[in-house]
Amino acid sequence: MNINFPLLLVVLTAVTGIIWLIDGQFFRPRRQERYAQSGARKSAEDAADSNDPDQPWLAEVSRSFFPILLVVLVLRSFLVEPFQIPSGSMLPTLEVGDFILVNKFTYGLRLPVAHWEIADFGDPERGDIMVFRYPVEPSVNYIKRVVGVPGDRVAYEGKQLYVNGEPVPSAFVASLGNQDLHREKLGGDVFSTLYAQRRTDPDAEGEWTVPEGHYFVMGDNRDNSRDSRYWGMVSDQHVVGKAFAIWMHWESLTSLPSFHRVGWIQ
Q1: Which positions, given as ranges, span the membrane (predicted)?
Q2: Sign of torsion, CA 47 48 52 58?
């Protein structure tokens, strides 16, 4: 079962905020007045400075949690959001179990849940590692590398990537079992990729033109990634943010978290 955490966070923040506001505006002054009149305090002003001992449990919890929820909502919606890598499609750059940080304002600010853009700060560039909502199932987040921006002609043939008719520079580094490690350069980024030594899947080959407002994305594990070669382009409306750092690695509940992979993402 997929839990829509952004929606849950928005709802909890709104509910606790409304309860706190209603209690503070309507019910707390009445409790303080009754408390002052009881003789336990000399005046209503003294009662206002008390800890409000008759405050209902729900109001007390809402007052305590609303500021925390609000800060978390603002941070993860507009600044930085954590994600966990669930598959090996971005090997060797990102491993299964890597916990990454995603910059939410590099490409502009969007409202949580509704995803409406309220400020535009820039567009994804070739070479960026981008988190986006999977076009086939927008409730699921995917992460891939941007290889084509609006107007680009992207082609993939015989384990060679082409952008606008030019081959992307790719140098063989080493053989790792049944895969070959390469170093590639796209835009201003130099990064590692993996290619299976078996024949390329015919469905992964072809040529595509990236339309306006869309991006062509691929996994660095080129022969083990379902990406734009299979299900199409990523709309600008589905962009979440740019991945920029690994802050922890924790592959499973049966293992301990480690920090040996902490660092910036290339």
Answers
A1: 6-22
A2: positive
Distance between CA atoms of residues 254 and 189, nearest Å: 35
**Contact call for residues 73 and 112 (beta carbons, < 8 A):** yes
Mean confidence (pLDDT) of the chain = 90
Alpha carbons 173 and 192: distance in angstroms, whole number: 9
CA–CA distance, 144 with 135 (Å, rounded to integer): 13
242: DSSP letter:
E
pLDDT bracket for residue 39 (50, 70, 90): low
* Active-site residue flag, 77: no
Tokens of 220: 């660095």
Query: By three-state DSSP, how is residue 59 classified?
Result: helix
pLDDT digits (tens, 9 = 90+) for 213-230: 999 999 999 999 999 999
Helical segments of the chain, H only: 5-22, 28-37, 44-48, 57-74, 228-231
| Whole-structure pTM value | 0.84
Q: Report d(CA 213, CA 233) in Å as an integer.
A: 10
What would the pLDDT profile of 128-176 be if each residue is shown by its tens digit? 999 999 999 998 999 999 999 999 999 999 999 999 999 999 999 999 9
The vertex-136 CA angle with 134 and 139, nearest 5°, equals 55
Q: Which of 62, 89, 225, 228 is catalytic?
A: 89
Question: How far apart are the C-alpha atoms of 108 and 51, rounded to whole Å?
Answer: 43
Residue 144 annotated in active site: yes
pLDDT at 7: 87
**Are 88 and 241 in contact, with CB atoms under 8 Å apart?**
no
Q: Which of 104, 144, 159, 242 is catalytic?
A: 144
